[in-house]
Write a structure and sequence with these properties.
The protein has about 130 residues and is of the alpha+beta class. The chain is built from 4 helices and 7 strands, in the order E-E-H-H-E-E-H-E-E-E-H.
């Protein structure tokens, strides 16, 4: 059975469960109030890279977060990981490779960018034909 920080789960639950478990595991940590304020604002999604057998968690912060907030979260999460006996992810008692990406940037919509370039090129071609 899959587990995230010692809690059984199926993969579709991994992102929200990681957030919930970090909140649970932060109980006795200094600066917990700041951590809770920030973690309430995030969404955590999970991906499995099957080629590397690597669990990738992406913590997306709102754009209002500062670089200091990102750095604080990084350090706080590291303290949680070091302070627990459970691995981030395990399968039937065997620890799995896992990584957490903390980001305050919105992913760029590549399709929109490509289409904008295509429309620009088409408009230029149409103008040349009309001239």
């Amino acid at each position: 059975m899959w587990k995230v920080f010692g809690e059984e789960a199926v993969m579709v639950q991994f992102g929200p469960l990681l957030k919930e478990r970090m909140i649970d595991l932060s109980r006795r940590k200094k600066d917990r109030a700041r951590f809770l304020d920030l973690i309430e604002q995030v969404e955590i999604v999970h991906y499995l890279d099957i080629h590397q057998t690597l669990h990738v968690f992406r913590m997306d912060l709102p754009r209002t977060c500062t670089a200091d907030d990102v750095e604080f979260l990084r350090g706080f999460v590291q303290r949680i990981i070091k302070g627990t006996e459970f691995p981030m992810v395990d399968l039937d008692g065997e620890e799995q490779k896992a990584v957490l990406i903390i980001s305050a940037e919105e992913p760029e919509d590549e399709h929109r960018v490509r289409m904008a370039e295509w429309y620009k090129m088409k408009r230029e071609m149409d103008q040349k034909r009309e001239a």
